[in-house]
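Backbone geometry tokens:
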Amino acid sequence: MISGRLVRIAAVVGFATTAWACGGSSGSTDTTAFAPLVELSPVDSTNPTLPPATEAPTTTEPAGPPHIEFAFSGDVLIHSQLYKRALNNTGGNGYDFTPMFAVIKPLIESVDYAICHLEVPIAPAGENPSTFPLYGAPSEILDAVAGAGYDRCSTASNHTLDKGVPGIESTIANFERVGITQAGMARTPAEIEPTVLEVNGIKFTHLSYTYGYNGLSTPEGEEWRSALIDPDRIIADATKAREMGAEFVVVSLHWGTQTAVSQSQRSGAEKITSSGVVDLIVGHHAHMIQPIEQINGVWTVFGLGNSLSYHPTDGVPQANTQDGMIVTVNVVRNDAGGFTVEQPVVHPTWVDKSDGMVIRLVKPGLSDPNLSAAVKDQLAVSLRRTTDVVGAYIAPD
């Protein structure tokens, strides 16, 4: 995310509004492009016969086709060990998750638009944070997410209803507070409808759905509070977004179990991608990295793994719950007026439980002189696990 880039919400069903999503910073409504100032040589007033100063020659690179480079990352699941560490980071006065994102921040900030997955609601005001089975994260997690450069998060998950309607309302209010957006929770029926965003002159939509709510239910008549995975509904939403002006549709799906792609994931992806109205699928929930494939010509990232969590490292899930990946995808407008979705690029990550719960970039970490041999050994093991699943997509050194 390039700070200050204007992201316009072009249309929202039910009301018209304009919102800004630039990693927490506001953008100007004046988007006029100005040429760089050219310094001119001063005229010698004592010798008026000198020719006037001329503008220095400039060269410009030809502009490439319009494109958006996206970044997607997996589950942000705030276990008690994480919020206790965040409390310790402040000396007991509030919560600071910012150091946990410090290593990945340059990568997240380098892309045009970055989307995280917040798997848990924000605890309502006045409530202490809580963990399994009913999660409620401190609101400061969103300060860290926005500060790291994310523009938006998917929020539909099996934990969406853990704190009921107050949790949904608290979550959305805190997204607004930090200046980034979300898809997957709603305070009104209009908020669950597709929204058209715009970056670099390209209009797109990002949608979010989950397989269920761990047995919980939305209030009667308020099914719109979140969105369940239903291929017919997803296709209808994507079609509606295109009617609203979206040229490109990204769908986040909270689904799957463990490393292998399930039959329900595969059948759902087959139906959704065969519609021709969805251009990219990104998945999460399994807490382990899952394969990347093209389904009906549509890139499908079945599971991003965990971005930030503290699952146990023995039993099931095991140590590979520390593995995750930031996947960057470049979407380029082609000569025919459509879009070419370039092959996804995987940047493996690993949660370092031994040193501040930091999300580490695995490959750069292996050559970091400031990291211990023990940490590098763990990074090497993590890289082997990730390579086993998505090795063909890992970014080169």
Remarks:
- Residues 373-390 form the longest helix (18 residues).
